[in-house]
Predict the structure.
Amino acid sequence: MTLIHVILLAIFQGIAEFLPISSSGHLAVLGKWLGLDPEANFTLGIVLHAGTLLAILAFYCKSLLRFVKLQRNRLAGMVLLGSVPVGILGIFFKEKVEFLSANLWIVGTLFLVTAGILFLSEKLYKKRSDAGDPGYSSDDLTWKQALSIGAAQAVALLPGISRSGSTIAAGMAAGLNPAAAAEFSFLLAIPAIGGAALLEFLELARGGFADAGDPGLLVAGFTVAAVVGYISLALLLKILKKGKLALFSIYLCFAAAAVFLKQLCGAA
């Protein structure tokens, strides 16, 4: 794996983790197209996710400080509750998710599923907004709503289903305004990404870090993913304010078509 490969993957990770187009799906596709070793690609994927985790921590540092000061302890509880579904599925279905990531037909199909989720989410929100309902803040979430958004995050373990897209859509469907849905989505990402990174680190430690890859390349990937991720997160919030989620549906349809075409050409 070269530095150019790592930077390319890191840029896509930083963009796709926050813009609702599925970072796991894009990493699976790019890894396959670039001919990267699946084990090395998986390890790099965890490092790149850790980079985007840093971007979240930096972007929402004020909200997190309020957690520390116990000013939003109820919301902190909702975040922990909403993290339960992905924790359970991540532990018991990790190998199945890795297997699915190797099948680009599945990844392309799930790109289309994400496109449908985003399109319907925008339509439903516009209907509610036109009726004079601006939505409420994340501090008003109930435990049932937190679990429903957490379930959407768990489904997004599937490569091609956008974590940010599915959780923001679920949050808006639950009645949150777009900014609040985004905040809760990315607060949920902190234990999800952090937990996944910890599990991978422990797995690498058991193997003596033999498959960890070049440390220099991993550091470069982490840094690029963090910087690009921070910029992408700020961009997404601006797009959400304008209610333009369906724009990403168009992109995902083209991405799915490209994946299917590539698969057909490869099979010919």
Summary: The longest helix spans residues 178-206.
